[in-house]
Design goal:
single chain; about 260 residues; alpha+beta; four-stranded antiparallel beta sheet
């Protein structure tokens, strides 16, 4: 499948989808406190998304049963919200969400610490976020997909962390997942050349331990095999003729 180059109209729609998604993440960040269930976080997320006349990208996507992927501690991605899963002091919680606005998607993830977290957890979250920004530096027209993976992997590995290789970023637009795949690690091939108008989701998934992961029996939740903590940080970005633009952001809100 060819890589879609977005028109100015499509970019504007994705920019608005991203703004709404950023607001959703900010509201969910405020809600994460000890004692709340992951089910309650999910329902709040869906409510916020729908209040903007948008649709949650993830709900029923390939059978996924919720609007927000909520992954706690050793869970890397795709955790399923539950009425029986209570957030506790010291947890780290990854929220992955998507918004459809007038037929176009935005996709972003954040990892938050709950109350007092360990220094190791803080280091993991900060490094995972910075991995994204290291990738952003090379996400420029004329470079290749491989350059993004190298940037993420080198930054994480130099700091003694693991880079999940079983899951990758992706193109995004009229579909939640489009070409190209965007690995967080060095690949043998250079991959697609980055061109202005491409929109991709760059999403480092980093662990305190080894890179190996397993899928739980629910067929969705991905966990670290060694039980180490994992963090996830993602934004939808636009490749331009100059600096890349983060589309999943809102004015006045922290990334």
């Amino acid at each position: 499948m060819a890589i879609a180059i977005k028109s100015q109209r499509e970019i504007e729609l994705m920019r608005e989808a991203g703004r709404i998604l950023a607001i959703t993440h900010e509201e969910l960040k405020k809600a994460i406190k000890p004692g709340i269930t992951t089910y309650e976080i999910d329902k709040l997320g869906e409510e916020i998304i729908r209040s903007y006349d948008c649709i949650p990208s993830f709900l029923n996507y390939n059978g996924y049963p919720a609007s927000i992927c909520i992954s706690v501690n050793e869970e890397v991605v795709h955790g399923i919200p539950s009425k029986n899963r209570y957030i506790q002091e010291g947890d780290i919680v990854s929220l992955d969400a998507g918004v459809i606005y007038k037929g176009y998607h935005s996709d972003a993830a954040r990892t938050y610490g709950v109350g007092q977290v360990s220094k190791e957890a803080e280091f993991l979250m900060e490094t995972t976020k910075q991995c994204f920004f290291e990738a952003l530096k090379v996400a420029t027209a004329g470079n290749h997909i491989r350059d993004i993976g190298i940037a993420v992997e080198q930054y994480a590995v130099q700091r003694g962390l693991g880079v999940v290789i079983d899951l990758v970023g992706h193109g995004v637009g009229a579909n939640l997942h489009e070409e190209p795949e965007v690995p967080n690690f060095e690949t043998k091939r250079r991959g697609a050349k980055l061109k202005a108008g491409m929109t991709i989701a760059v999403e480092p998934m980093i662990t305190l331990g080894d890179y190996e992961v397993d899928w739980l029996d629910d067929d969705w939740t991905v966990v670290t095999r060694d039980g180490s903590l994992a963090a996830h940080y993602e934004n939808t970005i636009l490749i331009t003729e100059g600096e890349p633009e983060i589309l999943s952001r809102a004015e006045g809100l922290e990334l």
